[in-house]
Amino acid sequence: MHAAVIWFLIGFILFLLEFVLPGLILFFFAVGAWLVAILLLFIDFSINFQLIIFVISSILTIFLLRDWVKRMLYGKPTSKELLEDEFLGKIARAETAIIPGENGKVYFKGTTWQAASQDFIAAGENVTIIGNDSILLIVKSTKNV
Q1: What is the third-level CATH fold of 80-144?
Q2: pTM
Q3: What is the mean pLDDT of residues 79-91?
């Protein structure tokens, strides 16, 4: 069997393993193997040189292209998704009283945020973050959750 075919098969196996062990690393080793296979179609060189090309091209593609490919495949998280992960359902503490129709302040993650609520919330009371309007947090008393 020709060395180019062997490298192609190694790349194909690594590509398939990416689906079993996701992390977007094995894909770039597959690219490295395919690059060696393509080069072997035109130039015949030793196994040592093949391995060097494989390792260097795989590592270079990981460092240069992994973040870009990740963004292309998975997209960037939207601000709404970030809000859901970091804020929604979390507990904060009311720094000031929050009266329905008027904003108050809550302490969350080491800083003070503007907050609004449909409930009357006393200063010092724990609240649950249920939404946002730009940088204004919408909260609800933990007594009513």
Answers
A1: OB fold (Dihydrolipoamide Acetyltransferase, E2P) (2.40.50)
A2: 0.53
A3: 70
